[in-house]
Please model this.
Amino acid sequence: MALTQDLGAFVARVATDGTSTEAREVAKTGFIDCIATMIAGSHEDATTTLLSALSPLPPGTVQLWFGDTRTSASEAALLNGVSAHVLDYDDVSLRGHPSATLVPAIISQGQELGSTGKQMLDAYVAGYEVWANLVGRETDMHHMKGWHPTGIFGAIAASAACAVLRRLNAEQSAHAIGLGASQSAGLMSNFGSMAKSFHAGRAAQAGVTAARLAAAGFTASPDAIEHPQGFLAAVSAQGRVDRETPANTLGQAWQIVTERLNIKKYPACYYTHRALDAILDLLAKTPIAPADVERVDVAISRENATVLRNHRPQTALAAKFSIEFVIASAIQARKVGLMELEDGFVTSAPVQRLFERVHVTPGEEYEPDAPGSLIADQVVITTRDGRRHESAKVRYARGHAKLPLAQSELKAKFMDCMRYGRFEGDAAALFERLDALEKAESLNIRRTE
Model:
């Protein structure tokens, strides 16, 4: 059986047999964190501009941002996906942002179909496993060829997840995956603009569309993934991709249980997080006034530095992809949170003056299990009196799967996002409901809840 067909057979098995308790627990964290960032991003310019452009919305049963506005599953997946990713505060795994594509697609499709919480969690696991299988076939960084993995893998993963919710058979699921592959898109050149969050929203929407089309009998090629001119070959950074190994063992062991999710502590590109932990710990131990900073050397990889392309950002969107900004924010504000990722703070004179003092020093010791990243990142501050202050070398950012947040920290982030997003319902009750999602009969949320 060919790879695309293997993936379709796996998705169909999940639709009938489910996954595992351990796998659903990880997926539940993805739902909690993504819904938090989705609501937090609901008032951002990218979200409101998109809403305005699409208005009037078609009628439907699916909630936008768990509010009173309802529309079709397709529009809801797009809008909720953009909102979930626009702050760049959503979780990270598999070289991208799985929840920002999977959760909006699953919520939208699930609300339309009346799916249970358990079915939604199983759909998430299926999407994650398909993504993991595909991204694991590539040894090089898709980013370096200009592809945003969230957009290209997210469309396929969301298609698999929605196929589970629609309970498609193996042949239909393979068609959905192939249709998702033909909707894969997302360019690295659009980082730091509204278009980056559009990648996640369109991937979520692609999943809803692909599964709906496949259910109606719309077809894709049976080898859309592995063909020499198929998905894997097309997006491969240097052509060193495994198109041959079958995927017939999917589901025997759940990659989501071993790989898990990395939850973000800061609303900025994940490639900044280890350096941020390093400098914030250093400043907590050795307080240094901004005026005393002569130079900051940041040791990160050349690949990560390439992604962090904005050296003198003038907007919050651009600042999310600027090592200069996050270091300046850490020095000036002693934190990098939602309130720092505002245009006014980014363009403030004290922050802008610090940019020229930040210098990237590419390291050479690479992490074998994380393509394109060093084993550890480090920051060195040189003060005006000539003294050098070295941070610890940070291998895992706080919130990484190997250094996970406590449940109390996850809830604190959730509640902070609810406040930032001006959520009108009972945020604590919503958290508790999501924390017991496997028992929920549906995921239609009332504002008074």
Summary: The longest helix spans residues 194-215. Residues 3-264+411-439 form a domain with the 2-methylcitrate dehydratase PrpD fold (CATH 1.10.4100.10).
